[in-house]
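sorry to bug you again but im stuck and you know this stuff better than me. below you get a single protein, a line of residues and a line of whole numbers that encode the local backbone shape. mainly i need to know what kind of three dimensional shape the backbone takes. anything you notice is useful, everything is just below:

***
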Amino acid sequence: MPAPESRQPSADQANPATPPTRVLGLFGLAMINIVAIASLRDLPQMASYGIGSIFFYILAALAFFAPVSLVAAELATAWPERGGVYVWVKKAFGIRWGFLAVFLQWFQNLCWFPVVLTFGAASLAYAVAPEHSSELAENKLFIVAVILAVYWTSVFLNFFGLSGSTRICIMGAIAGIFIPGLLLISLAVIGLLDGAPSRLMENSDMLIPDLGDFSTLTFAVSVWLAFAGMEMTAAHAREVRSPERNYPLAILISGIVILIVFILGALSISIALAPGDYQLQSGVTEAIQTMLARYGLEEWSRLAALGMALGVFGSVNAWIVGPSKGMLASAEDHALPAALCKVNSRNVPTRILLLQGGIVSLLCIAFALQPTVASAYFMISVLTIQMYLCMYFMMFLSALRLRRRYPEHGGSYRVPGGKAGLIVVCGIGILGAVFAIILGFFPPSQLAKSGIDSNSFISFLAIGLALGLALPLAIAWLRGLK
């Protein structure tokens, strides 16, 4: 998510002729991409595919991660104004469609908060009460209480401008991603070398899963969201030294590192745990605990769980203002009432944060309405992905239109291959997004044991996505946006 920023334009924004300071090298940009994209929370979902997770991760990297990264880099360097995707879509199709795109980006972030905090709550449950962690991870009252307490605490802390620290973000990534991720993978490798039993083939022994049965593939949609967010980090492209070389190379390096973490992490869970022995929201801690128990060190797994919980909570607190960034930019074009976008003395949009908090609280009702936390966790995850994919669909179309309308307008980076290269890259991205949107509407067979109802699953996604599309268009119509 983007860091919060003042509503006052920077020097670069006020004077486009002022050249940006080139402060980022190859290593710095690659690290920003890794910290922003990598996460362990989706590993348990992909672990159910066993070795088949390799296929889905590589497919998502080629069909989604690479196109988003390349196109966002071109757009960010050509139109670096505050607002990101709002500015790009607005310049291509008008304010109304720009508002729709940024609304989808904003609202999916609100859906993301309960999902990621559920993962954090499950990790916290194991850290403080490992003997009752399984029950707490499926206790809707506990999960909802943790989500609301942490989120609203972060909201009010952000009123005082306490978020936006890069240090908090990096510390959260180290505590919640790198250390537990390295521990998870290392334990799996050590176990294999020691001759410990492997459950990998019990999860799935197919390198390429059965692509004809959509109900077995719905979990794979989560891998698209695992790679999402590069349009946020693309804002740094104009600060990169030799961007025409370093930006695509940084994408390649970060993509390889992220792929390795994701693939080896999912395989490690598959090796440690048999199908049905782990929960979606706590599978990482359960796998670490199982592997440490072989050496009588299971108590150390509580530290890994605590690290993942702190990483999640620190990330939420550090970036909670981020989703309002594009909304503030759209407000300057009168897409929203001025009163709603009022900022306090520290340039924090307090009313938008309160609105966000209310929506997040309502989303928590989904946990109470679903038979299990796992089903609610997955359903909100898929809704988040669907909204994000619609925004990306608009971003790819905007890139094609902007290149055609402004052929001479460009920044320091362009998608390789000229116009043909851009068409191919955007075409792959559009097809990947459409495929994932369609796939998301097929109830997953893996969730049958949780009591999820197929009709409720489809209705929830259809209604949620319809509201996500209709509400901003209705607002745009009422506000007279074109």
Remarks:
- The chain has 21 helices and no strands.
- The chain has one domain: 25-478.
- The CA atoms of residues 269 and 287 lie 6 Å apart.
